[in-house]
Amino acid sequence: MSEMSETNKRPKGSRQWLAILLYALTGAAGGLVIVHYIDTITEGGPLTGMHLLLFLLLFVLLYAAMLIQTVIHEAGHLVFGLATGYRFVSFRIYSWMWLKEDGRLRCRRLSIAGTGGQCLMGPPELKDGRMPVLLYNFGGAIMNLLASAVFFGLSLATPPAWVVTPFLRLLAVIGVMFAIINGLPLRMGPVDNDGRNALSLLHSEEATRAFWIQLKVAELQAAGVRVRDMPAAWFAV
Questions:
Q1: In whole angstroms, how far apart are CA 129 and each of 78, 211, 233?
Q2: Main-chain dihedrals φ then ψ at residue 151, nearest 5 degrees
Q3: Which residues of the chain have pLDDT under 50?
């Protein structure tokens, strides 16, 4: 029994380390873009004070690229969710959340460990225990990849000496890494990522029903319905 427990724990640990490695590679990829750009404009010469300031600016732009790609990622969930019958409930970036409450859009503050953002939507009705889950869950990664292709194409059309060129490259690199981090089925800290959610829902009718209830409860709560007024069958174990 103890051997089985140890065996079951190893894959979880390896997936956790893989997630950490992917985040580290994201930062490393952004750093390589910055170093390559600085090397290009200095042409191998010594760094000046202006170059150092530009270096710091590019690190700020690296974080800006992460923020922009986070917005793009959550927008992907929204777009593909709407396209497959879901309804808008809330849209969160870090701790800022826009919520549809009593028919009006309101701003709230909410943080969830292990997530940089979240797009919650009201689910379509279940049909034979199933509903569309792949595009809604993979929509963020798909949108990151599409945006990265656009940003990289734009970077090829700008003069290499412009600071906008490395910024576009950063957006492209970060977008690809976000797509990998969210598309590969992984447990990211205390929560499963989009890819793991999609596979779990695809192979389990029970998980799909639980997912539907979770989204439906969030939708009804935003509409002002109390949990005690919801069907008791939703909460039966």
A1: 23, 11, 15
A2: -65, -40
A3: 1-10
Q: Three-state SS for 136?
A: helix
Number of neighbours of residue 57 by Cβ within 10 angstroms: 14
| One-letter amino acid of 6 | E
Q: How far apart are CA 15 and CA 188, in angstroms?
A: 8
Helix (H, G, I), strand (E, B) or coil at 218: helix
Given the DSSP bridges, would you call strands 117-122 and 104-109 parallel, antiparallel or unpaired?
unpaired
**77-108 burial, b for 16+ CB within 10 Å, e for fewer?**
bbbbbeebebebbbbbbeeebebbeeeeeeee
Residues near 135 by Cβ (< 8 Å), separated by ≥ 6?
80, 81, 83, 84, 142
H or E segment and range at residue 54: helix 49-83
Residue 3 has what pLDDT?
36
Query: What pLDDT, on the 0 to 100 scale, is given for residue 79?
Result: 97
pLDDT for residue 9: 45
**What are the distances in angstroms from CA 175 to CA 98, 143, 213?**
23, 9, 31
pLDDT at position 53 is 84
- pLDDT for 67 equals 95
